[in-house]
Amino acid sequence: MVDNTATKNQLPHHQGFGVSIDVPPHTGSKCYDDDGRLKRTGTVWTASAHIITAVIGSGVLSLAWAVAQLGWVAGPTVMFLFSFVTYYTSTLLSACYRSGDSVTGKRNYTYMDAVQANLGGAKVKICGIVQYLNLIGVAIGYTIASAISMMAIKRSNCFHSSHGKDPCYVNSNPYMIAFGMVQIFFSQIPDFDQLWWLSLVAAVMSFTYSTIGLALGVAKVAETGKLMGSMTGISIGTVTQTQKIWRSFQALGDIAFAYSYSLILIEIQDTLKSPPAESKTMKNATLVSVSVTTLFYMLCGCMGYAAFGDLAPGNLLTGFGFFNPYWLLDIANAAIVIHLVGAFQVYCQPLFAFVEKSAAERFPDCEFITKDFKFPIPFIGTYKLNRFRLIWRTIFVIITTVISMLLPFFNDVVGLLGALGFWPLTVYFPVEMYIAQKRIPKWSTRWLCLQILSVTCLIISIAAAAGSIAGVIIDLKSYKPFVTSY
Questions:
Q1: Which of 26, 271, 379, 389 falls 20 to 30 Å from 17 in CA-CA distance?
Q2: Distance (Å, whole) CA 338 – CA 73
Q3: What does the alpha-carbon distance between residue 194 and residue 381 come to, in Å, rounded to a whole number?
């Protein structure tokens, strides 16, 4: 049976980054919201699960290295400041979900809808470009991280069986290809609100490997009986003065990446039911998720540094700061891979939806783009297969996998992604939209405070980007395409 889905009232809830189409309201029905779309069912807990899935990703594993570059004073301080900025700007962004009244105003279904409604003009295109590049970058970063974790399982078993005599070099390419194949399958999930179960599984996995990393750090400190590290971070001599500067800047990018989720906040908010007002629920979900993740980050980053000091690995569970118990490392790395499968989809679904909506609007009579084929699946229901979705999403996953095989530098890529995405998406656009939405007078005290916050974060982002680019340049000196091994 073929079903044409090009009509306006059949467009899915989550339209990605483009400017969405209004749907005629279904008045007087308990099945529809005030915008005519199917009743949303999300709660503070499902929103928190989505955020935690997006936030507690591979970034947590680089935090011990980041704290090692900054030291006991600056490391935790910077982490706390990033968490506060992320929470504060997320509350500003959530206030922009509806234009005008926070309860009855017109909904903005996507981040770009909110930018269009509050800022308009060239800023919408700039926002879109930054978002697309950032999401593609996150997909690449997660592919690299998952491959490293899969290789870590192989290597830890190899070390165990050879009693440390075999160097156990492993090529990363087969593991990136395997991750890509899994993503091709999961990318055929049609819509964001159908990912709730994958987000819950991924959130559980993120707590699993974070807890294991924390426990191993505590065990290492208990074994040695002392806290490693210093107040100012990695010492001159272990690295040169120039390297310390660049690595400290890169550490800022790693911490920024660990808190990166603002680009999908509006999409998550669009899954929430009301009343209460979506902005109120989202504010609570943000507080819960940022508080939980900051606690985990502080514990994992600080205990990893306490365990290894200047020698803290770039990836706590795969840099082989730990060798035993090898089976526990295998569980932790398997949890990372499962989590990244879900996180990849949480980040990429808005991009998928945007491209498909744009194609349907541009070619409304093209059956290749607009027609769904229904297939009954036992115990699950009916699956709608769209040929354009199948081909375009598959091509996207293949391209990100190939780029990951070309640039398998975990720490540098993580730092660069954090630096490039943090200021524009987490700080600049939320601040500017909030100022426009609330009509805050120019040069007023509040306006000045918001602008100072924005400029400060811009300076930090530029420094972090410079440090990460320096790291990539160093890595490229000893790099051969498609032959990377660990």
A1: 26
A2: 34
A3: 13
In this prediction, residue 179 carries a pLDDT of: 92
Nearest Cα to 229, choosing from 82, 81, 70, 79?
Answer: 70
Q: Is the dihedral of CA 157, 159, 161, 166 positive or negative?
A: positive
Which residues are registered as beta bridge partners of 181? none
Helix, strand, or coil (residue 4): strand
Q: Using CA atoms, how far apart are residues 383 and 442, in angstroms rounded to an integer?
A: 52
Q: Decide if 331 contacts 215 (C-beta within 8 A).
A: no
Q: Is the pLDDT of residue 486 over 70?
A: no
Cα separation of 44 and 50, whole Å? 10
Query: How many CA atoms does the CB half-sphere of 279 hold within 13 Å?
Result: 20
pLDDT at 322 over 60: no
User: Which residues, 6+ apart, have CB-to-CB distance to 157 below 8 Å?
Assistant: 326, 330
Rounded distance between C-alpha atoms, residue 305 and residue 214, angstroms: 11
pLDDT at site 485: 54
If 0-12 CB within 10 Å is exposed, 13-18 middle and 19+ buried, where does residue 42 land?
buried
Question: Picking from 53-67, 384-398, 423-437, 462-476, which range would have the lowest pLDDT averaged per residue?
Answer: 53-67
Contact 271, 193 (CB under 8 A): yes
| Position 1, amino acid | M
Residue in the structure block whose two tokens are 């909110």: 114
pLDDT at 481: 61
CA 273/CA 44 separation, integer angstroms: 9
Between 29 and 372, whose confidence is greater? 372
